[in-house]
Design brief:
Layout lengths: L3 E4 L2 E3 L5 E7 L9 E6 L6 E6 L5 E3 L7 E6 L4 E6 L8 E7 L10 E5 L2
Parallel strand pairs: 2-10
Antiparallel strand pairs: 1-3, 3-8, 4-5, 4-9, 5-6, 7-8, 9-10
Length: 114
């Protein structure tokens, strides 16, 4: 069973940037479509960005042009660069495959507030 560990969250002012990291165990990482999901209080978890093993990316409309997903298969790591952050980006961010295949990690809290 693949396990993931997310890191890089924190408190940032509107307009700021953060870079999230997701370290995964298991060889299946390199052939999986990886994605970042987020869940805000009282809301359902939503897919924010995904990247196939070939590098094809997809983004939710709400983050297009601001977030960038990347991956390093040699390190079994996935990243999410978040720029121009808005208060509505506040959520717990988690990574997983598409479709969801791994046990969820604890996620990393991102809070955008002045």
């Amino acid at each position: 069973q693949v396990q993931v560990v997310e890191s890089g969250g924190g408190l940032v002012q509107p307009g700021g940037s953060l870079r999230l990291s997701c370290a995964a165990s298991g060889r299946i990482f390199s052939i999986s479509t990886m994605a970042w999901y987020r869940q805000a209080p009282g809301k359902q978890r939503e897919l924010v960005a995904s990247m196939t093993s070939f590098g094809i990316t997809n983004y939710a409309d709400s983050v297009k042009g601001r977030f960038t997903i990347s991956r390093d298969n040699a390190k079994n790591t996935c990243y999410l660069q978040m720029n121009s952050l808005k208060p509505e980006d506040t959520a717990v961010y988690s990574c997983n495959a598409v479709p969801v295949s791994f046990r969820w990690g604890q996620g990393t809290q991102v809070t955008v507030s002045s």
